[in-house]
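Pipeline run #58 for the internal structure catalog. This entry was flagged by the ingest filter as a single-chain record with no existing model, so it goes straight to prediction. Upstream metadata was stripped on purpose; only the residue string is passed forward. Reviewer on rotation: M.T. Logging verbosity set to normal.
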Amino acid sequence: MINYYSLGSKGEEVKKIQRLLTNLGYSLNIDGVYGEKTKNVVTRYQTDNNLLTDGVAGPKTYEKLLLKNGYNEAEAYINSRDFFSKTKYFIYVNLPKFTVSIFSGRNKEWQLIKQYPATIGKKQTPTVTGSFTVKAKGEGYAKPKEGFKVKWYTQFYRGYLFHSILFNFDGTIFDGRLKMALSDGCIRLNELDAKYIYDFVPYGSLVVIENT
């Protein structure tokens, strides 16, 4: 979900926006009310940062505020939007960047704890996009006809999984390529990265996959 904060908005998120602006030297009361003064300061901030000058703190303005306040790129993007998980963990997959990011915390307060390179689905069998949750897990499975096995899988939707790169049956690497579109839709990771998700990201955790 994407929220837009504008004239008349109230609450803790408005306070956070006001606080982020005052941290950057703008004069503003932190009262949680998006009044004319807050709108004018937001407009000035937008002008100063080559953003659309509409006086509305939408996701782009919010994201830029977070970046200017020291958040890293991944955290700024995630915390400028709404992502609710049933656990304290959240997995975000950016398909064009071939990255899997793991966050800890809660909505609007997510902290990046891990970021991994990944291989995603090829054009003929793309990785699904949308919002999912962590479901079944397993130590691995084999595909005898194809001649390989994978380790440490975590299911997030039907036959779509996070799992390791591909291994020969003797344990040597069959295909260790990452940051490419090669799979049948699953998301491949280095073995230890796949095992981290298997070990530490609990059932029910939010998984969001975007193609933007």
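catalog note: The CA atoms of residues 47 and 53 lie 6 Å apart.
catalog note: Residues 36-48 form the longest helix (13 residues).
status: ready for reviewer M.T.
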